[in-house]
Amino acid sequence: MPAIDTITSAAADDDYRSSHVASGDTYDARLADSPFDNYMAAWEQRLLPGLIRRFYPDGIDRYLDFACGTGRITQQIAPLAKHSTAVDISPGMLEQARAKCPDTRFLVADLTQDSIDIGQFDLASAFRFFGNAQDELREGALGAIVRRLAPGGHLLINSHRNPRAFYAVFEKMTGGTAMAGMDLTLPKLRGLLERHGLEIVALRPIGAWMYRTRIMLTTQPDAPRALRNEALFSSPLFGPIAPDALIVARKR
Ligand SMILES: C[S@@+](CC[C@H](N)C(=O)[O-])C[C@H]1O[C@@H](n2cnc3c(N)ncnc32)[C@H](O)[C@@H]1O
């Protein structure tokens, strides 16, 4: 069976910080080559503008993309913001991002360890990060982000490695290992956010109807079946069993 999410499996040395130090040249192509990642990325892209308009109808003032990688999400959100900053620990990933977002300020930094002053933000995002990072890094990253969020500001993330997704449970029951290392359930993520003073105010599941790995690996994002089922399974109630979800959390 083809691997799912081959790019973002936990780093071999257990610290996710070093996972993408040498991935800058290959990340985008590998993401596009994985049917599952490609599907989720396409649906995230489709849903993001509406979700952002809901919270920022007049546009975003100050936007931060944490762990921006090659700028996949930065390039979608930065045009909706007056000022945008993107941070990543990997110079190679940032080099790719810079080329896509000429008006964004890019910084190579680990905000969990550097106390640099980069300002305050109204919206921060972190994609394909929390599901992959180890607990210590999840806590450190949330602390670092929340400190830089203005009161009432929002964090927008995805959660793409849910071990309780239907397909993952099916896989486990049939002896599959595709979900090895996945531990970020929705209740665990909610607890993590709440400990850092963040309250989930929007949740949009993606792919909740895909109960078998085979379906995930063969469905095109714009197939009629996908369009129909994504509408049917769009309620936040499907969040706990969805393989991916867009989540907005507000700083109290
Ligand atoms: C899977 S990539 C996601 C990139 C991008 N957000 C996306 O959705 O395509 C995860 C990124 O997290 C970065 N990263 C890991 N630890 C970090 C840290 N402590 N501070 C900033 N970036 C970090 C890695 O270098 C990598 O670029």
Structure summary:
With 252 residues, the chain is an alpha/beta fold. It has one domain: 3-Layer(aba) Sandwich (Rossmann fold). It is 35% helix and 21% strand.
Instruction: Encode the helix/strand succession as letters.
Output: HHEHEHEEHEHHEHHE
Total discrete domains = 1
Q: Given this structure, which CATH class is correct?
A: Alpha Beta
CATH topology category name = Rossmann fold
Distance between the termini: 44 Å
Instruction: Report the C-alpha radius of gyration, rounded.
Output: 17 Å
Give a list of the ligands. S-adenosylmethionine
- The assigned CATH architecture is 3-Layer(aba) Sandwich
Strand order of the largest sheet: 3-2-1-4-5-7-6
Number of strands: 7
| Sheet with the most strands, sense and barrel status | 7 strands, mixed
Binned strand content: 15-25%
Q: Which regions have little confidence, pLDDT < 50, spanning 5+ residues?
A: 1-12
User: Helix count?
Assistant: 9
Query: Could you estimate the helical fraction of the residues in percent?
Result: 25-40%
Secondary structure category: alpha/beta
The CATH homologous superfamily corresponds to Vaccinia Virus protein VP39
